[in-house]
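Thought: the user asked what Serine acetyltransferase looks like in 3D. I have the sequence; next I should run the structure tool and report back without guessing.
Action: structure_tool
Action Input:
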Amino acid sequence: MLKRINEDLETALRRDPAARNKLEVLLAYPGLHALWNHRIANFLWNHGFKLLARVFSNWSRTATGIEIHPGATIGRRFFIDHGMAVVIGETAIIGDDVMLYHDVTLGSRGFAEGKRHPTIGNNVIIGAGARVLGDITIGEGSRIAANHLVTENIQAKTVEFIYQI
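Observation:
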């Protein structure tokens, strides 16, 4: 567990040029706090304590401004820069080494049962204000520009620069 916490701190230091040291990251990075809280909520969710997981994740959202459903799957070295207004839905799957900026939504497009949120491949960066909606896949190494609306699959190593509001 301590190795994973240290890995998270190192990831923040590597991803954010404004981060000066591990203590600052530990105490003042809501994206990191939301991730750690998600891991607890996800554990509860996966062990049948769904209501407790939802209550805990709601408390985390209130404290951090970042909403991550306890059912979401998040890989290693995930980093949320700034974080306010990030929303990650229940069936979202996020790979390793993914970075989200503030106000990103990984949401659904309907009310159907089953997988309805995006799958984000490894080494993806999603810019501020982007909306990635539906059961779609964002390929490994892709970059999504700020304020971009994505509703279709994106191939690996694609750079999406189309600006949409």
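Thought: the tool returned a structure. Summarizing for the user.
Final Answer: Structure for Serine acetyltransferase predicted. The chain has one domain: 1-164. The first helix runs from residue 2 to 15.
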